[in-house]
Amino acid sequence: MLFLLLTAAAIVWVRNLFAVVILSGVYSLLMAGTFTILDAVDVAFTEAAVGAGISTVLLLATLALVGQEDHGQHRRALGPIAIVALAGAMLIYAVPDMPRFGSPEAPIHVHVAPRYIEETPNAIGIPNVVTAVLADYRSFDTLGEVTVIFTAGIGVLLLLAGKRRKRK
Amino acid sequence: MSALGNFNYVIAITLAMIGFYVLIERGNLIKKLVGLNVFQTSVFLLYISMGKIEGGTPPIHYDGVAPFSNPLPHVLILTAIVVAVATLSVGLALVIRIREAYGTIEEDEIRALDDQLGDAE
Q: B95–A62: do the CB atoms touch at under 8 Å?
């Protein structure tokens, strides 16, 4: 967890964009490890493949086209720091009201989740509850997710194809 | 980790604020996108932390293992990760086009070029 913080801080300070991109890959991989510790193995798989893999490849491909150095001045304006500190302080103020970490009596664990966990083996017939919910109970939502990817793909193609046409 | 109480939430919030800071303060567009990524991932951490049960196991049924951690946040976050990479790819495509049009990816320089164009007209 502390490594996560270190990596994120380094992303703020490092100027070379190549290093920033690699650091963001490291960050995603550390996050995937954290997800495994927190029992979210499916999420960890996805984060390692998508966050550490595909995102890094996309960022590197972009860097190849736009160059590596961050030339912008560090403005050190007080405005952004104040906004960030204020928002962070308010969120941390809310933390003590959260249920204790890992507590089985937290509201999130007693209401809807047990029903899914108990009925999945009989109703769906596969052992992995996350897959069952994703692909069966909420399959329309997953269809919507595929639509989002499709739209993003079309957007990227339109943006980049327009460039090629103009060059001719 | 449980001895530290709500330590996880504090880490998630700190990461979110670091990402937020990069997003609004740095002028470089690629760095902004990486900051956005950090922010999104910190929100994932918040959700997954809420789903954890002490002594829980991953929510996969096999003989006599209980209790499971809550699978519902996991499902939500799986969807969110995919949406995150979709926004990232569109953002990067926009950055490439901006670079083509302006020859720079620094926000300050882009704004300066815009002002010059406005004066010329």
A: yes
